[in-house]
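hiii, so i know i said id send this last week but things got crazy w the move. better late than never?? heres the sequnce for the chain we talked about at the cafe, plus the structure i predicted for it. fair warning i was half asleep when i ran it
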Amino acid sequence: MKNYIWNMFANIKNGQTAKKSIIIQTRKNMCEHILKLLWDEGFISGYRISAENNKKLEIFLKYQKNGKPAINSIKTLSKPGKRVYYSTKQIWKIDSSKLFIIFSTHKGLKSITQCKKFKLGGEPFLIIN
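okay and structure toks below
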């Protein structure tokens, strides 16, 4: 996994720890795809391309009503040294109400609910609680 993805998640976690509402991140296509999935699932309030600098993204962080961050933890399952792949049958056995998993499939990055909907298998990219 690329360093700019980990930098983005580190910036999100640090921004939520500091109770910021907006953070700035370098604009990359992969980051935009992940942010779209996070926005669709309600982990962030939104994102947009910065008005001042076309190469930056503004990410709007989301908090629960009690002030806790919407993203508690971010983990990886598959690593470059040990790849893990899930078939469609294995994905159906995962409880998607408790975990949000982003899969890398042959049709791009998809959430676990999208993989179940389109009957896709793939490599688990990130697990977010």
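btw The two ends are 19 Å apart (CA to CA). thought thatd interest u
miss u guys!!
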